[in-house]
């Protein structure tokens, strides 16, 4: 590998991101406490750290952070972030610097070569070149072939362009190539494949490759894993070319854009060891015409047949005792889900979504007895035609982690027996059914996400929700729940999404404070009362996203990755006046919708603290007073609706600076004065300003010539009042709750008494209702 440094360094032009050095080393344990790392290895690591700068974070790494920053010479390097030591020797054996924002050149004489383990593990080391999840562009240099011992090339998730680098096949040592998720284009040509090829694994899926699959692929006789997903064949495919690849264990032929119908039984008959087969997005005939027993014995563990135009449940699955993952979503399968499915002892994930299943066949005795020892963790059956009650056998699936039965016609109440699942069930969606009755009180204690929206549920929210300490998403929208505001949910440290929309909730909400909340929709209820000025002070989830303790790199809200499966949350929200379905919820998305209630009094000035707020809807309430200039701090705001209130005074000029504010609506209030300038204001339709006391300005003149504007640019001059003075003081009091944890107690008293610094006031801004006397002439 020594000679390889030169060549690899040439492709490592910009390490804008993350470097992942993989080692073929089985004995990897977490950092031990018994062995301190060796001083010379520690020094080499520190030197390595200094060879790079900490650059901008890669967009993929939403929650990554510079791991090397924590490295320091006065501690055990085995405990540093990203480092794994051999448990026995204490040698540094693994470096994981994914998403660490390292920026710079990977030099061929990098001090990392001085690490002692490099000599010991010389052969297996960088034999593996992993460049995945970076932003490499350009083409792979042909002289990569001079890396004499290269065994594994992992360049997934980059932007490598150009034609398929068939010269890779001339590297005799190469056993694994992963170029998936790049921008490779042109036809797929393998060139001269060295014979016999040692290649065990080839993944070139998700590129822009077009044309037929090269026949020479049949020479890769040792292939165990082949990925050709999204290869745009543009024509018929002769699938018998794969019949030569007798060693295949994992075959991904999804989305080939071919008119050829794949005969499932036929393709299965080619292989003896196939464990995973993905034919999603192709035409597949899974009819059970040839007897199942004609097939050679298979050991299929994962079968993905999503969107294959299948009309019958593939009977073949019945004979697959090792099956763990079955995806038959997006097909046209009718009738009942067969009961023998629950007899498969290893089944872990079943996706039946988007079919026309009517029901679940009742399990008989043999099924029930195997159901008692079930392995199934994911059961996804959304968007089918299931009717009747939710079947009670589901309560027997004791390892069930995720159950999605949304968009069906289930009726009756939520089965109380689901209490059996209370220690395992993490994600439950029963959205869009016809369920009635109340929400069960004592079940679901391990839930992360609960969505029962769009049903006919009545009663109160169970107070036992307070024990759901893992709850992140609670959505009960569009039911008939009649309750006061669930203040007690404030104690849920992880709650990020709360949707109570369109129920019969009532009363004040003034005591609520939610540290992690990012999306709250309580619109169209009967809430009333005023909101105190400091109302939003503790809503830190919307004021700084950095407070998110989330360590994962996942951009969207959902369950954690579990054996390759993630369940993503989804939600429908009003944004810019239209119902927006977020099939996945970006973790940076934030929204407050209090519209359609009876709130009165002023809009709390502390709203200006929510610097990460994207959507704010306060329309259709009875808010009075002025719009605080503090809203000018909402730099991420995209949509602002304060229409149909009793707001008076001016629209703060500060709002003119909000560059993302694409939608705003001030109509049906008592506003007056100059409408702010700025691009965003000039592109609004007239109806966004109509029915006010007297708004004027060049922005308006453009868009609404027909609404009446006041004759003169009058000033609203009133001297500052005592009341205003008081407001300033309460603003300061309110801000105390917002100061980051470092500054506390006496320090605050000191600042308050002696300084009253300017930034202290910023979140609340000045009062716009009245012009100060100093500004008048
Ligand atoms: C590989 O080719 C690049 C140019 O494409 C050149 O800069 C580099 O020196 C070459 N490396 C070796 C080891 O030949
Ligand atoms: C850590 O090492 C560097 C040089 O390697 C030295 O300059 C620095 O003073 C050391 N810091 C501590 C705290 O020992
Ligand atoms: C493939 O190899 C043969 C001989 O082994 C040679 O004649 C031919 O030119 C090669 N083709 C390419 C495209 O390299
Ligand atoms: C549920 O639906 C079934 C048929 O779809 C119907 O026969 C039954 O009466 C319904 N039950 C309730 C409680 O509405
Ligand atoms: C189930 O299948 C649907 C349709 O293909 C897909 O959108 C969804 O993500 C799948 N669910 C899970 C948890 O994999
Ligand atoms: C605000 O909410 C009201 C009522 O809930 C809705 O009609 C309106 O479209 C929403 N505004 C925006 C900008 O989404
Ligand atoms: C602004 O809101 C009013 C009432 O809330 C609505 O009638 C009007 O269509 C809205 N304007 C725009 C541009 O959405």
TrEMBL record:
Its main location: membrane. InterPro entries: Leu-rich_rpt (IPR001611), Leu-rich_rpt_typical-subtyp (IPR003591), LRR_N_plant-typ (IPR013210), RLP23-like (IPR046956). Keywords: Cell membrane, Glycoprotein, Leucine-rich repeat, Membrane, Receptor, Repeat, Signal, Transmembrane, Transmembrane helix. This is Leucine-rich repeat. It is a single-pass type I membrane protein. GO terms for cellular component: plasma membrane. The keyword Cytoplasm does not apply. Residues 39-86 form the Leucine-rich repeat-containing N-terminal plant-type domain. The chain crosses the membrane at residues 732-755. It is found in: Cell membrane. Belongs to the RLP family.
């Amino acid at each position: 590998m020594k000679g390889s440094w030169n060549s690899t360094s040439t492709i490592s032009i910009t390490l804008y991101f993350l470097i992942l050095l993989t080692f073929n080393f089985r004995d990897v344990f977490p950092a031990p406490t018994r062995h301190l790392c060796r001083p010379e290895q520690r020094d080499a690591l520190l030197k390595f750290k200094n060879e790079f700068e900490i650059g901008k974070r890669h967009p993929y790494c939403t929650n990554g952070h510079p791991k090397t920053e924590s490295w320091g010479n006065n501690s055990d390097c085995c405990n540093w972030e990203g480092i794994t030591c051999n448990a026995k020797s204490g040698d540094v054996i693994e470096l994981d610097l994914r998403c660490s924002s390292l920026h710079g050149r990977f030099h061929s004489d990098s001090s990392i070569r001085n690490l002692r383990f490099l000599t010991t593990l010389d052969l297996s080391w960088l034999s593996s070149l992993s460049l995945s999840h970076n932003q490499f562009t350009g083409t792979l240099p042909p002289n990569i072939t001079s890396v004499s011992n290269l065994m594994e090339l992992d360049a997934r998730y980059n932007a490598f362009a150009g034609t398929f680098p068939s010269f890779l096949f001339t590297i005799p040592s190469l056993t694994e190539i992963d170029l998936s998720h790049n921008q490779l284009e042109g036809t797929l040509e393998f060139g001269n494949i060295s014979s016999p090829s040692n290649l065990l694994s080839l993944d070139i899926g998700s590129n822009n490759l077009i044309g037929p699959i090269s026949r020479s692929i049949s020479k890769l006789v040792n292939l165990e894993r082949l990925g050709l997903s999204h290869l745009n064949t543009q024509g018929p495919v002769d699938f018998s070319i794969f019949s030569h690849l007798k060693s295949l264990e994992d075959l991904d032929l999804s989305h080939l854009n071919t008119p050829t119908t794949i005969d499932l039984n036929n393709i299965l008959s080619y292989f003896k060891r196939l464990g995973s087969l993905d034919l999603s997005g192709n035409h597949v005939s899974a009819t059970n015409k040839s007897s199942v027993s004609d097939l050679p014995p298979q050991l299929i563990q994962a079968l993905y047949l999503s969107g294959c135009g299948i009309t019958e449940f593939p009977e073949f699955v019945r004979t697959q005792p090792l099956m763990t993952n079955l995806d038959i979503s997006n097909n046209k399968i009718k009738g009942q889900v067969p009961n023998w499915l629950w007899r498969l002892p290893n089944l872990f994930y079943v996706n039946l979504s988007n079919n026309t299943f009517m029901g679940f066949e009742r399990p008989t005795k043999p099924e029930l007895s195997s159901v008692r020892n079930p392995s199934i963790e994911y059961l996804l059956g959304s968007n089918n035609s299931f009717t009747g009650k939710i079947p009670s056998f589901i309560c027997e699936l004791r390892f069930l982690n995720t159950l999605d039965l949304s968009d069906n016609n289930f009726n009756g109440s939520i089965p109380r027996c689901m209490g059996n699942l209370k220690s395992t069930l993490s994600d439950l969606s029963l959205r869009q059914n016809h369920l009635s009755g109340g929400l069960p009180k004592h079940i679901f204690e391990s839930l992360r996400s609960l969505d029962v929206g769009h049903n006919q549920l009545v009663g109160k929210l169970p107070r036992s929700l307070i024990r759901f300490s893992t709850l992140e998403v609670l959505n009960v929208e569009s039911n008939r729940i009649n309750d006061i505001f669930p203040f007690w949910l404030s104690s849920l440290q992880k709650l990020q999404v709360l949707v109570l929309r369109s129920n019969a909730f009532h009363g004040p909400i003034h005591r609520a404070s939610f540290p992690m909340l990012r999306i709250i929709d309580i619109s169209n209820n009967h809430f009333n009362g005023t909101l105190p000025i400091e109302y939003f002070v503790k809503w830190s989830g919307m004021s700084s996203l950095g407070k998110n303790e989330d360590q994962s790199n996942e951009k969207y809200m959902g369950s954690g990755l579990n054996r390759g499966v993630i369940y993503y949350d989804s939600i429908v929200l009003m944004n810019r006046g239209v119902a927006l379905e977020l099939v996945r919820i970006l973790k940076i998305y934030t929204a407050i919708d209090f519209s359609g209630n009876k709130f009165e009094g002023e809009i709390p000035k502390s709203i200006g603290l929510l610097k990460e707020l994207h959507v704010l809807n306060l329309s259709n309430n009875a808010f009075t007073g002025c719009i605080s200039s503090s809203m000018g701090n909402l730099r991420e705001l995209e949509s602002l609706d304060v229409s149909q209130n009793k707001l008076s005074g001016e629209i703060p000029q500060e709002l003119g600076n909000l560059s993302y504010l694409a939608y705003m609506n001030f109509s049906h209030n008592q506003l007056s004065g100059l409408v702010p300038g700025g691009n965003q204001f000039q592109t609004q339709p007239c109806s966004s300003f109509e029915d006010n006391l007297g708004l004027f300005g060049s922005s308006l003149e453009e868009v609404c010539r027909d609404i009446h504007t006041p004759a003169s640019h009058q000033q609203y001059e009133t001297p500052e009042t005592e009341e205003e003075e008081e407001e300033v003081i309460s603003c300061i009091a309110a801000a105390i709750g917002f100061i980051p944890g470092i500054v506390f107690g006496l320090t605050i008293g000191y600042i308050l008494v002696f300084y009253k610094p300017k930034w202290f006031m910023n979140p609340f801004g000045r009062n716009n209702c009245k012009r100060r006397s100093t500004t008048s002439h």
